[in-house]
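Section 3.1: Structural characterization of target chains.
Under the original work plan, the team committed to producing a structural model for every single-chain target entering the pipeline before any wet-lab resources were allocated. The record below documents one such target. The sequence was received from the expression subgroup and is listed exactly as submitted; it comprises 129 residues.
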Amino acid sequence: MTDLDAQIVAASSLISVLLVFVFAYFSAVLPTIEELRARARPTADDDRAALRRRLGTYQKIVAAVVVLIGLVVLLLLPLSVEIVRGQPWNGTFNTLRIGLLLVDVLLIATAAALVMEFVMMGRRRSELR
């Protein structure tokens, strides 16, 4: 086992815990966000204001989860850079290294999906004015 592989193995328990939190937050907020965006436009002004406030609250939650994902990606960045420098796709297949790069890709895709939800919630909030 190389030094880089040992670093990945040493960091894997921390990475696992962080990923559980990131994806748990994502899966917890996504159904509520989808439901809020799909709600029919309330006829009463106070109901529209309440829906706008709730969408705004969820926008803050989504922003916090995106920041959390960014911090996890930053934490993984030194290992990921070392893996890319070592060109993991050449030579023998290294599951550990490719797996860490896949985690990076999944985190970035999750952040992108959350940013899209953030934007769509903002559009929905402006429609409710």
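Residues 5 and 96 are 7 Å apart (CA to CA).
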